[in-house]
Design goal:
This protein is of the alpha+beta class. It is 37% helix and 29% strand. The chain has 4 domains: 98 residues; 78 residues; 80 residues; 140 residues, ABC-type transport auxiliary lipoprotein component (Rossmann fold), CATH 3.40.50. Strands 16, 17, 18, 19, 20 and 21 form a 6-stranded mixed β-sheet that branches.
């Protein structure tokens, strides 16, 4: 049986099919908003920014895109974005606290999302992620309010700097003078963002910075930073008097292309500051260390100190028994092991001495640590008339000269069978001590490699 379909119905079906195909074809959907390809020009009420980012979820992508727009706003407000604390950029709808390079603080209010486009995508591996683009409006009124807040804060800081400099005239105490100068320089530094916005603030800041620099130079003519000979240490004095409790910054070079973290050490009662062992060990590959007064001023005393003075190791040797002497073998082997590990050995005088006495001598030399080696011949046999066999035992210890704490220690005893043979007892003993010195130096190198 054949069915007859009216021509009008065929025409309607064809039209519906054509409409369906048109709806499914690419590019036939709603037109993309113009802001996706070009940031809108400012209007009477706001300036616009487009934030872009991706995330594993829609919310993550949206928040990241909003943060991107805020970075652009911050840059527009003349704050260095590289110093922006990103953790302060939190969720949408909250006030955003901005902390700039000069620690100028302000609150960004009124930044609103005017439009958004979030699309689901797949990576080559098939993982789902989201692309977000947000159009964010920042009102002109808020920009003006932000500017006024920054200018007001800057003027307040500059007034504080001016008051601090006025107080210097009646301040005989160098520590207080240094504190006043440091605060003045900080206040002036804090005003730099505002100085870029307002000529009067810029002029006041420049005048105060010039006055502060002049007063700093007057102070520094009386303030002396002296390098202690052969040590990574400095002494600070004011008109010849030791100056305690003053911050000294020790900075090493660039290891592996990255700046090493500086260390701030305050001077002791004698006006002396030296970096701690951790800093020296962490930077022992460097040739030198720079010490300066951590006062945040433009011009301040500084000294370059050879690192060798901070990597000294005081070495003491004690020997007893047949073939013993002044510990020459131990001292030689130990010195070689220390140099191999980038330390500089300094030999302490021979003779019986306790740990306390040795620590005091090591401290006087500015040694980073003290190496104490004690060796002895415990037994000698005469198996044949012209042959002697001697056994050596010994230990090696590393001590902190400052407090006596044990940094490392190792010992070799009877079970290690360190033997020397010779036609006299003295030769056999000397041979055993030479072997002992070699074995102890190997242990020392292992300990030094692990020293932190």
């Amino acid at each position: 049986m054949r069915y007859h379909i009216p021509a009008m119905r065929l025409l309607s079906a064809a039209a519906a099919l054509a409409l369906l195909c048109a709806c499914a074809s690419p590019g036939a959907g709603p037109k993309a908003p113009a802001w996706l390809s070009s940031v809108p020009t400012p209007d009477a009420s706001a300036k616009y920014f487009v934030g872009r980012s991706s995330g594993l979820t829609e919310s993550e992508a949206r928040n990241a895109a909003f943060s991107d727009a805020l970075y652009q706003i911050v840059s527009e407000l003349q704050v260095d974005c590289s110093y922006l604390y990103s953790e302060l950029i939190t969720k949408l709808g909250e006030d955003i606290r901005i902390v700039g390079k000069t620690e100028t603080r302000a609150t960004i209010q009124g930044a609103q999302v005017s439009d958004s486009r979030i699309e689901e995508r797949r990576s080559n591996a098939g993982a789902v992620y989201y692309d977000a683009r947000l159009l964010v409006a920042f009102p002109h009124a808020e920009r003006a309010a932000w500017r006024e807040r920054i200018l007001a804060a800057a003027r307040q800081r500059l007034e504080g700097a001016r008051s601090g400099l006025d107080l210097l005239d009646g301040t005989p105490d160098p520590l207080k003078a240094v504190a006043l100068l440091s605060q003045a320089f900080r206040d002036i530094s804090e005003s730099r963002v505002a100085a870029a916005m307002d000529a009067s603030v810029a002029g006041d800041a420049a005048a105060l910075e010039s006055a502060a620099s002049r007063r700093a130079n007057e102070l520094f003519r009386k303030l002396k930073l002296e390098a202690l000979p052969g040590q990574v240490a400095v002494k600070v004095a004011y008109e010849g008097r030791p100056l305690p409790d003053l911050p000294v910054r020790f900075s090493a070079g660039k290891r592996g292309g990255k700046p090493a973290t500086p260390r701030i050490i305050r001077t002791d009662a004698s006006g002396i500051a030296r970096p701690d062992r951790d800093f020296l060990l962490a930077n022992r590959k460097e040739a030198s260390v720079v010490a300066d007064l951590n006062l945040r001023t433009m011009s301040q005393p500084r000294k370059t100190l050879p690192m060798s003075g901070g990597l000294r190791a005081a070495v003491y040797a004690s020997e007893s028994g047949a073939g013993s002497g002044r510990g020459a073998a131990f001292l030689s082997r130990t010195a070689a092991a220390l140099r191999e590990r980038d330390f500089f050995p300094v030999e302490l005088p021979a003779g019986e001495a306790g740990d306390e006495d040795l620590r005091a001598k090591a401290a006087d030399l500015g040694a980073l640590f003290l190496v104490v080696g004690r060796s002895s011949i415990r037994a000698c046999d005469n198996p044949r008339p012209d042959s002697y066999l001697c056994r050596a035992e010994g230990s090696i210890r590393g001590l902190d000269p400052a407090n006596g704490s044990i940094l490392f220690e190792a010992a070799l005893g009877p079970e290690d069978r360190i033997l020397g043979i010779g036609d006299t007892m003295a030769k056999a003993g000397a041979g055993a001590l030479e072997k002992l010195a070699l074995r102890l130096s190997e242990k020392l190198k292992d300990e030094l490699a692990a020293l932190r």
